[in-house]
Amino acid sequence: MNLNKFNWNELWRQQAAMQQDPFALEMVKRRHASGSKSPMGLLDCTLLYALTRWRKPMVVVETGGFLGMSSAFILKALADEHLSTSKLHSIEWMEDCPHGSLIPEELRSGFVPMRGKVEDFIAKGALPKRVDMFLHDSSHRRAHMLMEYEYFWDRMSDGDV
């Protein structure tokens, strides 16, 4: 990716527009109503939306999917780009978490919920071989983050995020 030719203004324009979009406002209401204290806020999610629209990924993996706030924005971007065959593999290890519960029904066709630990999915070879976009939001222990970044880095090409 040549960052000199990248249109940062367009990215920020899309991000700012999504912050005012009825979808974003509804998602904030849903998160608030769920009682979630997730730090994944509106700025984070709308930036993910803009990045997803820019990259147009076929395969996205997120770790720490939790209730699906970030998932919903990624899936909305995929839908807005008419990427009907794109998939979001969302990994959540907490058994008592209603994984992806915030995601609107109309966006669920591209959602692939995966319940368990990343390490176990790696050991079983159960993750996509190729990843166009990766979002780490699981354990923030240094060793765990490095393990995830190293594993997914090897599955990405130049220009992937």
Structure description:
This protein has one domain (8-153): Vaccinia Virus protein VP39 (Rossmann fold, 3-Layer(aba) Sandwich), CATH 3.40.50.150. It has helices at 8-20, 22-34, 42-55, 69-80, 118-124, 142-153, and strands at residues 59-63, 87-92, 111-115, 133-136. It is globular. The protein is an alpha/beta fold and 161 residues long.
How large a portion of the residues is in β-strands, by DSSP E? 5-15%
Overall geometry comes to globular
Main sheet specs: 4 strands, parallel
CATH-derived architecture: 3-Layer(aba) Sandwich
User: CATH superfamily, called what?
Assistant: Vaccinia Virus protein VP39
**Could you say which structural class the secondary elements and strand pairing correspond to?**
alpha/beta
Mean pLDDT across all amino acids: 90
Counting DSSP E segments of at least 2 residues, the number of strands comes to: 4
Residue share in helices? 40-55%
Radius of gyration: 15 Å
Q: If you consult CATH, what is the topology? A: Rossmann fold
Order of helices and strands: HHHEHEEHEH
Number of folding domains?
1
Main β-sheet, spatial strand arrangement? 3-2-1-4
Count of DSSP-assigned helices? 6
Measured between the Cα atoms of the first and last residue, the distance is 10 Å
The low-pLDDT segments are: none
CATH class category label: Alpha Beta
